[in-house]
Write a structure and sequence with these properties.
A two-stranded antiparallel ribbon has the order 1-2. It is mainly alpha-helical. The chain has 8 helices and 2 strands; from the N terminus they run ααααααββαα. Strand 1 (117-120) and strand 2 form a beta hairpin.
Length: 153
């Protein structure tokens, strides 16, 4: 897998710790909240949540770093501009635990039982690692399902 990723210019290491990503999911919610606050204050989207998610992916999949412990996660968040101590405390307090549990409940309700799982247009799902053609067909189906107004957009 690492060889295939490298051939496409992607970094991937097979040497990585396994663990519970509940805290990482809480961090994503924190990043989303902070991003919305920055957007309101500065009148534009900062993309903090997206940058934070990409940082988590890179740390775990490319660098093989753990993304489970509040201290590790706060360090990663600090790289993206979040306050280390406030982030660590929010994770230890479980400030976003209810939001993560709500995500889990919604996933279970629509039949998601594993990762990766991709949801398109809040209606269509693709389970597991799939070929590019599978995603292309799914995206085309979603586009067609949106009707004639989507074609003129």
């Amino acid at each position: 897998m690492a060889g295939l990723a490298a051939a496409d210019g992607l970094e991937l290491t097979a040497e990585r710790a396994m663990g519970n990503t509940f805290n990482a999911h809480q961090l994503v919610h924190l990043g989303r909240e902070q991003s919305q606050e920055q957007s309101r204050e500065q009148g534009r989207e900062q993309g903090l949540a997206e940058r934070l998610l990409q940082r988590l992916y890179h740390a775990y999949f490319a660098e093989g770093r753990p993304v489970f412990d509040p201290d590790d996660l706060a360090g990663l968040a600090a790289v993206e501009g979040l306050d280390y101590d406030a982030t660590r405390q929010a994770l230890k307090d479980g400030s976003y635990a209810d939001a993560v549990r709500a995500d889990e409940a919604q996933a279970a309700q629509i039949g998601i039982s594993g990762v990766p799982f991709f949801v398109l247009d809040r209606k269509y799902g693709i389970s597991g690692a799939q070929a590019t053609e599978t995603f292309t067909r799914a995206l085309e189906q979603v586009w067609r399902s949106r009707g004639p107004e989507a074609a003129s957009a």
